[in-house]
Amino acid sequence: MRTPGTSPSGRHAPWIILPVRGEAAGKSRLAAVLDPIERMRLNRKLLRRTLDAIEHWQGSLAHCIVVSPCARTAASALARGAVVLSEPLPRRGLNRAAALGVKLAARRGALRVLILPGDLALLRVASLNGMARAAGAGARAAIAPDRAGSGTNALLIPAGARFRFAFGADSFARHVAALRARGYAVTVRTDQGLCFDLDTPQDLAAVAGAGLWQSFGT
Question: Contact 111/11 with Cβ under 8 angstroms?
Fold first, then answer.
């Protein structure tokens, strides 16, 4: 079921690449406040919320590729209708996972790809729509930094771009510089739904209660 007037339609709609470490491996930095079972539940919730937002934005998950080495994550995503790509072990990090997802999307006809992490706890339809509008079409890209302005929380680029991902510390500046060096106009988005990634106990406390987890709409 499509939400009218939100996502670009047809061949211009970006494919979403969603690298996910998995239910047991994800959110290890929260081990001080969450036991392993609680972290697994949190990782499941984050995946469900992210897929919900994408599905409400595009009307389905047919153009969403979940890249993960985790069998439980893969099964959950597949049951929702997403495309699943099993990440080879040993896992080599977000950069390889993103590249694998983009390569598959390009083979399936994608013109643009949006790489998202799976821990954007406040992700909304409006956030995704804003990224697509910011990138426009053609030789354009859009990027959303983390709250510190150093990392990259979302990146929308042409699927055929010859581009080496550099996720990690100071990746925002590196990604912007690399895109501009290749002739892409880059728009920066600072939407809260894109900039807030859930990494620390303080982040977890910030989203607890107040109904922040219940709404992913506009």
Answer: yes
Q: What's the rounded Cα separation, in Å, for the pair 42 and 48?
A: 10
pLDDT by residue (tens digit) across 6-34?
A: 555 555 689 999 999 886 566 666 656 67
In whole angstroms, give the CA distance from residue 137 to residue 139. 7
Phi-psi group of 151: left, alpha or beta (phi > 0 → left; psi -120 to 50 → alpha; rest → beta): beta
Burial 110-129 (b: 16+ CB within 10 A, else e): bbbbbbbbbbbbbbbbbbbb
* CA geometry: angle 99, 142, 201, nearest 5 deg: 75
Low-confidence ranges of the chain (pLDDT < 70): 1-12, 23-33, 137-139, 208-218
Dihedral pair phi/psi, residue 132, rounded to 5°: -65, -40
d(CA 21, CA 23): 7
Say if pTM beats, i.e. exceeds, 0.85.
Answer: yes
Residue 50 near residue 123, CB atoms below 8 Å: yes
Type of residue at 74? A
**pLDDT at residue number 16:** 97
Q: Report the pLDDT value the prediction gives residue 218, as an integer from 0 to 100.
A: 33
3-class SS of residue 112? strand
Residue 195 phi, psi dihedral angles, 5° rounding: -85, -20
